[in-house]
Amino acid sequence: MAATEHPLNELSRFLPEGSFDKVVEFIHYYKVHLTIARNRKSVLGDYRHAHQGNNHRISVNGNLNQYEFLITLLHELAHLLTFEQYSNRVESHGKEWKACYGKLLSDFIETSIFPADVEKVLRQSMLSPAATANGETALLTVLRKYNEHHEEGHHLLSVLPEGALFMTPNGKIFKKCELRRKRYTCVELKTGLRYTVSAITEVKLLEVTGS
Fold first, then answer.
1. Residue 149 in 3-state DSSP?
2. Contact 61, 72 (CB under 8 A)
């Protein structure tokens, strides 16, 4: 994984206005080794607890928009706070982590850092946060609106109508079918095989057919 170490004065450009000082307080107090990573498909952030003289380590993808970057960082900081209090005696995303994460989100929400639509969905997700960012379909759908660069014709699968034809990044063409929990059943046109695809997958819309 290619990554870059950023001095704290550079960190500000990844964060929403008004959040830098609060974030730096955590980094200094817990002596966090923060890494800005390049785009990773499987994760947005990662946490490794302090061990054998090494500091706590957190990495966050640097290609995220400022609101998604902050929320991902708070997700990982919640792991740190949970470890500080309970060590390895609790589940990774159990009630203890959820309590720490919810408290962090609440503290940052109260400073009016987030836009109204992001704040609304955050307040809902605080009630039972998902273990992974990909589980927060509603939140990520709103957050992706704030990406600086949008490829023409590309959309989140969740916003396409049922029956739409789309192309995935690997060039395969599918028809969108019914929603099952947080994934859509999709039929590959070439083979007729059925797959389940995450609602937040970015795809290229080809055309719309009947349901």
1. coil
2. yes
CB 108 within 8 A of CB 18: no
Look up tokens 């995303």; give the residue.
Answer: 93
Alpha carbon 93 to chain centroid distance? 15
Bridge pairing between strands 57-61 and 33-37 = parallel
Q: Name the β-bridge partners of 2.
A: none
As averages over each run of 10 residues, the pLDDT of the chain (211 residues) reads: 60 94 95 89 87 91 94 96 95 94 94 95 84 72 83 84 93 94 91 91 76 45
By CB atoms closer than 10 A (0-12, 13-18, 19+), residue 108 is buried
- In a 3-state reduction of DSSP, which class is residue 183? strand
Check: CB of residue 76 under 8 Å from CB of residue 46.
yes
Give me the pLDDT at residue 3, please.
Answer: 56
Contact by Cβ (8 Å): 32, 26:
yes
Q: Are 163 and 170 in contact (CB under 8 A)?
A: no
pTM of the model: 0.78
- Both tokens of 130, joined, read 């998902």
Residue that has been written with the tokens 């109204």 in this structure: 116
What are the start-end ranges of the E strands in the chain?
3-5, 33-37, 45-48, 57-61, 154-156, 164-167, 173-180, 183-188, 194-198, 202-208
Q: What is the predicted pLDDT for the residue at 134? A: 57
Phi–psi pair at 21, nearest 5 degrees: -60, -40
